[in-house]
Amino acid sequence: MNTVAATSTTAELPLVDHSADFPHPEDDPAYRVFIDSLSYLPPEEIEVVREAYLFSEYAHRGQRRLSGEAYITHPLAVAGAIAEWQMDVEGVVAALLHDVMEDTVVGKNEIAERFGKPVADLVDGLSKLDKIEFQSHEEAQAENFRKMLMAMARDLRVVLIKLADRHHNLQTMAAVRADKRRRIARETLEIYAPIASRLGLNKLFQELQDLSFHLIYPMRARVLARALNAARGNRRELLSRILEGIKGKLRDANIVAQVFGREKSLYSIYRKMLEKRLSFSQVLDVYGFRVVVTDVPTAYLTLGALHALYKPVPGKFKDYIAIPKPNGYQSLHTTLIGPHGTPFELQIRTEAMDNVAQEGIASHWLYKDSEAVGAELQQKTTKWFHSLLDLQSTAGDSSEFFEHVKVDLFPHEIYVFTPKGKIIALPRGATPVDLAYAVHTDIGNHSVAAHINFTLMPLATELTNGDRVDIVTAADAHPNAAWLAQVKTGRARSKIRHYLKTAHHDESTALGEKMLDQELRALGVVASEVPVSSWKNVLRDSGNKLIKEVYTDIGLGFRIAGVVARRLLAREEAPLVVTDNRPASLVIRGTEGMAVQFAPCCQPIPGDPIIGSIWKGKGLVIHTHDCLAIRKARSAKPTKWIEVEWEPEPGKLFSVRLRLMVQNTLGVLGRIATEISNSGTNIEHVNMDDKHPGLYTTLHFTVQVASRTSLARLMRGLRRIPEVARISRDQGLPA
User: Fold this and answer.
1) What is the pLDDT of residues 304-349, one digit of tens each?
2) How far is CA 735 from CA 54, 313, 474, 599, 732, in A?
3) What percent of the chain has pLDDT over 70?
4) Sheet strand arrangement including 641-646
5) How far apart are CA 58 and CA 208, in angstroms?
6) Counting Cβ atoms within 10 Å, is residue 28 exposed (0-12), middle (13-18) or buried (19+)?
7) Crossing angle for the helix pair 398-409 and 371-394, nearest 10 degrees?
8) pLDDT digits (tens, 9 = 90+) for 185-209
9) Which position among 57, 90, 99, 103 bears the catalytic label?
10) Among 517, 574, 590, 652, which residue is least crowded by beta carbons within 10 Å?
11) What's the rounded Cα separation, in Å, for the pair 492 and 174?
12) How far is CA 45 from CA 34, 48, 367, in A?
């Protein structure tokens, strides 16, 4: 965020400016603290940082933030945060220069000449992000976020500098308009804080949340902070007893460890109160303890010792050491019952794990003992960014892409196992379809069921922690729209939508070609005899580039087949009206896919007299001839309706609703279900009308049949059941 009051117009910037009008940087205490924090760099690299500071200060000279401070205070603060992570010299220099391309006349080439191409690339990537304000228009928000992801995927230092930039902006927003403060804070909660969490930057994640909370709800934050301070005083004695108890038990067990008390962040307490509808006094686990040990075996010994001291809460133990979180976090979590029945959370981990837990990906630079872990975490993070970028290739538009990304930014993970023992993290509530797409797109597209813990289960089954899942596939299986309501991952949602759109497009093309061929035959012409010159004229007039696109537009209802046929034959003067010489009926099999839809109001099945209507974007919708829902529409727009008939052998099952009035006797539902099953018919849904219980009750079945003949056979069988008083086909739902 660039909040400047004036803009520098200097075309060429010297390396050092000794103007007496401006104080020497060494006189600035903030600058001296910053330089002292660079002691981890060699002297020659510190000189490069000094030069970058002078360059940035001169470029921003004359600019001020809305608070009135010189603008250089902002890049200096961001670079100071980067130095706390002990990032390399290129990262620190880029932090000092991150706004010069956006707010001054300095270009990328000049930065590259003075500080090298890697620094120029970093600044260039950051400059593309600085105008991200995430206005109310979701499309612009998503487009900007795409740019941010691309820069992050190239170099992870970009995201760390950007997060430090956002952190400092949140700390210095007193002079910003209240509505703008709230908008930026909400954007931080929605995007930047989750990214910090995903990178394992737990400390920064909590600070971003708390700062945003204070900006969005200042009164609530103050009230909750006062309550937390009061509780801290009231519970001091209890917490001291627990702390001393833990230390004493570890001494008795000869375990060397550091024990720390910890407090939940203000925003996490607020979220818990909000989500579980609790008052502050009902949030018992505000405080917890962290035990840092020397190695992994000692961590498990510590767990055993402390479980012997305080009783653990069943179901509250989590082993993130054996199965780390995707962001590299490792720790043992358990909840214990302390004195007076007070529950508290305990975390046990090694020092290296503690470093990663606090600083995440930044621990790669900050802690040399975490370097191997940090390198692995960098690889995982880069892979995650690339997986997000992969979503944009299948997302239909920016808002859809943004929806997928937000799903991936809020994962409450569960861990499941493939048949080969590979561990895959999925969001809570995920189904086998999510797992299938996480493994490979083709497996997801051809999934039919799953063996969960060696039991065959449907794809809609919700997975739980530790499940062993083996996906069952079939070559002729394909995704359906119902999966979108079942999946939880952005990847699965994106791949399903991409398949459905592609399938819909292909099926609409085939339908459009069939409809145009029908119209041409009615005009006495075979489609293959239409000259190329006629098609060129139609393509020129329509704006389409390919004949296939014309077919697709017809199938989707964006063009009328009769009009296109007349233009192909240069017969525009012939009016498109209802006549006795209308085209022969369009023949359908019912297996055309999404291009042909069967109206839910009348649920047509083979054998029913049918009629079709083309709707823009939907394709051909089929109704029965006597459907009450379309009576007015047919008389108002007769040209919109197409005569349709069934192919002799459609080869598909169709849903039909049945209404049965039956005697209210014991076991009647079971006898009816058995008769339906014995007839080879599948039951999709059943419910009972219990509004007027008495001697008779009404049952509603939705069954799948191949034709009107098979439906009649089923209904005859049901009528033979003594308890069935009346049976009818239910076609009463509105369109």
Assistant:
1) 999 999 999 888 888 888 888 777 788 999 989 888 777 888 999 9
2) 71, 53, 34, 7, 9
3) 78
4) 586-588, 641-646, 610-615, 619-624, 596-598
5) 30
6) middle
7) 150
8) 988 888 888 888 877 788 888 899 9
9) 103
10) 574
11) 42
12) 14, 5, 20
How confident is the model at residue 653, as a pLDDT?
77
DSSP classification of residue 461:
P
The band of 95, judged by pLDDT with boundaries at 50, 70 and 90, is very high
Chain segment 13-67, per-residue pLDDT in tens: 444 444 444 556 667 788 888 888 888 889 999 999 999 999 988 888 888 888 8
List Cα–Cα distances, 726 to 696, 704, 709, 729, in angstroms. 10, 20, 19, 11
At residue 663, the pLDDT reads 87
- Catalytic-role residue among 102, 319, 351, 723: 102
Instruction: Report d(CA 15, CA 339) in Å as an integer.
Output: 65
Q: Does 103 qualify as catalytic in the annotation?
A: yes
The secondary structure of 295-352 as a DSSP string is SHHHHHHHHHHHHHHSEEPTT--EETTTS--TT----EEEEEE-GGG-EEEEEEEEHH
Domains of the chain from N-terminus onward? 25-217 (1.10.3210.10), 222-366 (3.30.460.10), 498-646 (no CATH), 654-729 (3.30.70.260)
Residue 559 has pLDDT above 70, yes or no: yes
Instruction: List helix spans (H) across 369-454.
Output: 371-394, 398-409, 432-439, 441-445
Q: Is the dihedral of CA 141, 143, 146, 150 positive or negative?
A: negative
Provide the terminal-to-terminal Cα distance of the chain, rounded to the nearest Å.
51
For residue 81, give both structure tokens.
């945060």
What stretch of H or E contains 615?
Answer: strand 610-615
Is residue 102 part of the annotated active site? The answer reads yes
- For 267: left if phi > 0, alpha if psi spans -120 to 50, otherwise beta; the answer is alpha
Q: What length does the chain have? A: 735
Q: Is the dihedral of CA 224, 225, 231, 234 positive or negative?
A: negative
Instruction: Please choose, from the candidates 217, 188, 531, 685, the residue with its C-alpha nearest in 3D space to the C-alpha of residue 197.
Output: 188
Q: Which residues contact 614 (CB under 8 A, 6 or more apart)?
A: 557, 560, 620, 621, 640, 642
Report helix, strand or coil for 586: strand
